[in-house]
Amino acid sequence: MQKIAVFCGASIGFNTVYKDDAERVGAYFAQQNIGLVYGGGKIGMMGALADELLKKGGEVIGIIPHLLVHEEVVHSDLSQLITTKTMSKRKVKISKLVDGYIALAGGFGTLDEIFEALTLGQLGIENKPIGLLNTAGFFNPLLAQLDVMVKEGFLKQVNKDMVLVSETIEDLIAQMNKYTAPKISKVVNTTVK
Ligand code: AMP
């Protein structure tokens, strides 16, 4: 994988383990020569990740919609900063550039972005690997919710299995490199009986 989109918090979290992992991801990307595509912010987890990768001489592309371009949040030292008209155009631009997606700890924005990638994968529109970096079990309750969705018949196991999970970036990237997308895409049955 040459470029990976990383979605993560505009906040830094209360526990330093999250920031530490964001920096670890930045350092690993630099070491493996993986380019980062991300939200373009200099704040929170996004800033910690981008700063570490830039410090180590790596490539960082920020993609940010006009409405979020404020001097206090946008990163000014990126390899490239691309602005888009809307949030949705930003997602399309990101998807065109990357070979895979990773979410680190974050909030609504992070979940929105990673679930959009999963939805594209579920529909067979994309077949790129999608991973969660499960720092200190951060995503365990979310993974439990996905199991509820499978159990209750709202999510296919094969689609749940698209979600790659690891506590280390090294193992997560190894899983992503081996990933093959499920053959079956979701068919929505609209037949009314
Ligand atoms: P959240 O997880 O709610 O903190 O939102 C973070 C995610 O949404 C990131 O992956 C960004 O792509 C996007 N985002 C949210 N706030 C900003 C911001 N101020 N600047 C750039 N991107 C942002």
Structure explained in plain terms:
Helix 1 runs parallel beside helix 2 (44-55). Strand 2, helix 2 (44-55) and strand 3 (60-65) form a beta-alpha-beta unit. The protein has one domain (3-178): Rossmann fold. It is of the alpha/beta class and 193 residues long. A seven-stranded parallel β-sheet has the order 4-3-2-1-5-6-7, sandwiched between helices. It has seven helices and seven strands; from the N terminus they run E-H-E-H-E-E-H-E-H-E-H-H-E-H. The termini are far apart. It has helices at 16-32, 44-55, 87-97, 108-122, 140-151, 157-160, 169-178, and strands at residues 3-7, 35-38, 60-65, 80-84, 100-103, 130-133, 163-166. It is globular and about 45 Å long. The longest helix has 17 residues, at 16-32. It binds adenosine monophosphate. Adenosine monophosphate binds at residues 7-11, 39-41, 46, 64, 68, 73, 106-110, 113.
List keywords for this structure.
about 190 residues, alpha/beta, Rossmann fold, 7-stranded parallel beta sheet, binds adenosine monophosphate
SSE layout and pairings?
Layout: E1 3-7, H1 16-32, E2 35-38, H2 44-55, E3 60-65, E4 80-84, H3 87-97, E5 100-103, H4 108-122, E6 130-133, H5 140-151, H6 157-160, E7 163-166, H7 169-178
Parallel strand pairs: 1-2, 1-5, 2-3, 3-4, 5-6, 6-7
Helix pairs in contact: 1-2
The structure holds adenosine monophosphate.
Residues 7-11, 39-41, 46, 64, 68, 73, 106-110, 113 line the site of adenosine monophosphate.
